[in-house]
Amino acid sequence: MDLHGGGGRRIKLSSTGGCEEDRLSSLPDDLLRRILRGLPSTADAAQTSLLSRRWVRLWVGIPEIWFPGPAIPGRVHAALAAYAAHDGAPIHGIHVTTLTAPAESTAAWLRLAAPRLSGELSVVDNAPLDDDAAETLGVIELPCFENATKIELRLGCPGIALPDSGVFAKLETLFLEYVRFHGPCELGEAVSSARCPSLRRLTVRSSQGVSSLAISSQSLVKVSLGCLKGLQQLMAVAPMVEHFHLSPWYRKAKLSTVNISAPRLEKLTWAGRFEPSFLQRAHLQELCTAFKVYGRDRSLNPHYLSLFRHFEAISLQLLLVYPANSVNSYEYLMDDITFLPDVKNLVLSFCSRAHAFGASAFHLLRLCAGIRGLKLKFLRYKSEFQEPPECPSGCTCDQQNGWKSEGIFLNRLGEAEIHGIKGVEHEVVFLEQLFRWATALEKMTITFDPLVAVSDNLCEEIASFSRPETCVEVYLYRNGRKVLFAPVI
Predict the structure, then answer these.
(1) pTM here?
(2) Alpha carbons 357 and 200: distance in angstroms, whole number
(3) Which residues touch 113 (CB under 8 Å, ≥6 apart)?
(4) Which of 307, 236, 244, 313 lies closest to 272, judged by CA?
(5) Which of 193, 214, 433, 453 is the most exposed place for a label (fewest CB within 10 A)?
(6) Structure confidence by residue, pLDDT tens digits, 363-391
(7) Contact between residue 373 and residue 330 where contact means Cβ atoms under 8 Å apart
(8) Chain centroid offset of residue 287 CA
(9) Cα 407 to Cα 346, 348, 376, 437, 469, distances in angstroms
(10) What is the pLDDT of residue 382?
């Protein structure tokens, strides 16, 4: 198959308009290949063979194949065939972006790539499909990449059949997203030490077709499982794992059995039901989880409290989620949190949808007044280019304002960071209180939302809340650039 996309007359390269001497082609091969690697794709590099006989096979010596897409699978296959015909041409990286490519055409070039790749494989399909449309694409039979070090597949939910034989001897990182698992080989078997003896990082998310997952690995250091539709049972024996992330399929989670044995586990990221029996032989030091500030269902709250009691002294990262509309018809759930472990560093991320957050933040700070470090992040739940939302008219989110007059002593807090504030009234009030509570604060860093126009008066007002011994840095965005506010003296 023609990789060039058409024929053409060969011309000579020169540095001047009329000179027939091909000075560019006289450069060393390695330098010429570096020039070719700067072109948009492998197809563009191959087209340089039209310029001179000197360039006919030069592009095949580039140790990387790249089709930023949307690539035509046939051209990827043609490029790999050219490499196969060029004895000794190594391939250290294959990066392909497609658009609803049929499974068989993708599988065909993957089979050609498997014996030659000795580095990274990345395949991204930019058109995630619903289940019915994905079925029409067929099933990709993944070959065994014996020498690949990293495999990243984001496939838009076509089927994928893992190889039932062979060893991914050098694979260190496996990332799978938007796939439907098919075939007799189960995911747990494929990532076991017998099949992937060097695997250190495993990520599987937004996928389906795995009801039971049993992982047995002597090499894994980090495991991340997110939104696995249909997952019911999870077992993991991973003596080297330090970070385990699990977030089941929200609202449809049917995870009934969990048993994780990870004696070196230090960081746990968890969302959903939790029982103390889920973890065996773990030495946890850092916890990341989420909590609904308002809601109608309190059934998950006892599980979160059980999760907190699994720790003694930790760094805690907590995502606080607010409703997208008025909170008037919801119950306030923060009072269910009556206990926190000895928290050294606290990170609170707010998906607040512009609701007032002071009461929930105060509640948590009161339970862990011995923190040394504090970070508050205000997240966007929609496009970062949209204007910040406004709290619905008549919302009662700011009526729980007893915290504005109560005091707590954060006398160990030495450094605090606030990211993404917009400068609205309830934020400014909270910042003023925080400066009062943190009597030993050495440094405060405040960064405003990039989409908000911030006045100098507001920055000066916030800076005035601090004690003389506290270093305060206020960052804002001017003309799209992040700048440090400098008051006019």
Answers:
(1) 0.84
(2) 39
(3) 80, 91, 94, 121, 145
(4) 307
(5) 453
(6) 999 999 999 999 999 987 554 445 556 78
(7) no
(8) 17
(9) 19, 20, 19, 7, 21
(10) 54
